[in-house]
Structure formats: structure tokens, C-alpha cells
Amino acid sequence: MTVRHFLSLMDCTPAELAGLLKRGIELKSLHRQGVIYEPLKNRVLGMIFEKASTRTRVSFEAGMIQLGGQAIFLSPRDTQLGRGEPIEDSARVLSRMCDAVMIRTFAHATLETFAAHSQVPVINGLSDDLHPCQLLADMQTFLEHRGSIKDKVVTWIGDGNNMCHSYIHAAIQFDFQLRIACPEGFEPDQVFLDKAGERVTLVRDPNEAVAGAHLISTDVWASMGQEDEAEARMQRFAPYQVNPAMLDRADESVLFMHCLPAHRGEEVSAELMDDPRSVVWDQAENRLHAQKALVEFLLTA
Ligand code: CP
Ligand code: NVA
């Protein structure tokens, strides 16, 4: 039997993704009712973090506990991963001990190499290229608040980064229009744009990009690993701050999302985080339930 991995939203069909969102909502409801549901008893998720994390680590760890299993946190600093043991060998060994492995890494190729040598599902917990787990939570959040996102207008403001790439995948898989407003030189990779075709458009002016939008999302201007560029990026991205006045130009039902962590006063104005149109806390909470649905799908389907 071939092992299913989740390195990208493109690893699932649109129907499977829709099923994951529905299941995430069900698992959230069960949890809120205090129902004990432990289909993953004795199952273990290994979690390799090459970069920092709050939400991804805690949501996977709490999620595994809630489903009756356990998660093991592995940092390259105190494992052989940081001392040069080949990815291939680490994958062979860890996948004989764990039932699934989540990896947060720099090079996306690390995930692909690990997955190619793993006997168990591998989950992308963020790479330099993609952040698909965050999109499961974002799409679940939109569904809960506004219903289907099909044919809606979504605007991505800021860096053409890993989150932006996953939004492009989401536009393909969930069938919405995506407008991307980014400064010149900070566009998403052309390979992602080519795949999306006319569903995705690049717009330089953020105010033009948000007109009539149903969802506006942004992210930090300097991602993990780009700390040296932070100062220079601050200047280039200043006109791309998302604020309440910008949301006023969007559809009246618009929602604001941010994957977090946020830099209030930079990519998002301080007050917007707590604006009634902001759903950033629901979004963060939904990481837990969306990923429970994902792990259940990968381990029990
Ligand atoms: N949004 C997100 O992935 O957050 P963390 O970096 O805290 O995991
Ligand atoms: N683009 C950000 C997302 C953090 C969740 C980063 O890669 O640092």
C-alpha cells in the first residue's frame, strides 16, 4: 500500500480537502462537548522542528493527546539530525518507531527526501516553500464564519512567501479567485502562479487588490530564516500594511486572517487584530482541530 503524505494541499483531492474541513468542524464540536474520542490510542507522531514554533507544535501535540496518542518533539539541536545523520537514514529509523512524522524545515526538498524514505505519512509543518496545515485551518475558519469559499475573492497582501504559495494552492483546490498584492521583487514563485492560471492575479496596489474582497490575509514581512533582511524589507513593505481603512474598501462581509505570529504596527495595524472583522484567534484555534482531522485521515483512512 502506498503511504499518503501531506507535503502540500495538492497531495489531496478537492473532495478530500472538503472532507477534512468538515471533519475538523466535527472534531471541534466533540471536543467542546467534552466527548472523549481516542481513535489514535498508542499511536505516535514524531515532530521535527528545524525552526521555532508555538502554534504548530502545541496544536499537533495537544491534538495527538486529545485523539488518545502521543507526540514526540525532536529538535536538531539535541538529536543526530543536527550532527549530519542523513535525512534518508533518519526517515528509515523514525518511520519504524513513529506512526507519522511532522517536519518543519527550511528546504522543501528535505521534506521530499524524508517522505521518499519514510514508511509512514509525513506532514509538512512549514517549509520555506509551503505551509499547508495553516491553510486547512484558514479554510475551516472561513467555512465556519461564511460558508463555502468557492468563487469568493481572496486577497493576499505582502510577501510572496510560503503562506502565499499555499494560498495559491488553496485557490486551485477550493476554487476561489486570489489577488496577490506584493512589492516588486517579492512575488510568489512563477511555478506556483503558472499552475494556478487565471484564478490568481498580481496587483501592485493593495487598495485596488482588496476592493470587494471576501477574505484578506497577510503574514510577516520577514519569514524565519530572513532575519538579516528584516530592516530592508520594512521599508519596501510599508505601503502594504493591512489596516481597518483598507478593509473598509472590501466586501462588507470581509474577514481578516493572519497565520500568526503577527508584528502589530508592521504588516498589520495594532487595532486590526482585535477588529470585529478579524478572526485570527479562531484561525489559531482551528489549527488544533484541522490537524486532528488530518492525522486521523492519514492514520485511519
Ligand atoms: N502559524 C504558525 O505556524 O505558527 P507557529 O510558527 O507558532 O507554529
Ligand atoms: N511566513 C512565516 C510563517 C510563520 C508561521 C515564516 O515562514 O516564518
From TrEMBL:
InterPro entries: Asp/Orn_carbamoyltranf_P-bd (IPR006132), Asp/Orn_carbamoylTrfase (IPR006130), Asp/Orn_carbamoylTrfase_sf (IPR036901), Asp_carbamoyltransf_Asp/Orn-bd (IPR006131), Orn/put_carbamltrans (IPR002292), OTCase_ArgI (IPR024904)
Sequence positions that bind L-ornithine: 162, 219, 223-224
Catalysed reactions listed for this entry: carbamoyl phosphate + L-ornithine = L-citrulline + phosphate + H(+)
Annotated keywords: Cytoplasm, Transferase
GO biological process: citrulline biosynthetic process; L-arginine biosynthetic process via ornithine
Pathway where this protein functions: Amino-acid biosynthesis; L-arginine biosynthesis; L-arginine from L-ornithine and carbamoyl phosphate: step 1/3
GO cellular component: cytoplasm
Cell compartment(s), UniProt: Cytoplasm
UniProt-annotated binding residues for carbamoyl phosphate: 53-56, 80, 104, 131-134, 259-260, 287
Catalytic EC class: transferase
Enzyme Commission designation: 2.1.3.3
Main location: cytoplasm
Ubl conjugation listed as a keyword: no
Residues of the Aspartate/ornithine carbamoyltransferase carbamoyl-P binding domain: 4-144
Domain Aspartate/ornithine carbamoyltransferase Asp/Orn-binding: 151-297
Gene3D superfamilies: Aspartate/ornithine carbamoyltransferase
One example GO MF annotation: amino acid binding
PANTHER family (alphabetical): ORNITHINE CARBAMOYLTRANSFERASE, MITOCHONDRIAL, ORNITHINE TRANSCARBAMYLASE, MITOCHONDRIAL
Family: Belongs to the aspartate/ornithine carbamoyltransferase superfamily. OTCase family.
Name of the molecule in the record: Ornithine carbamoyltransferase
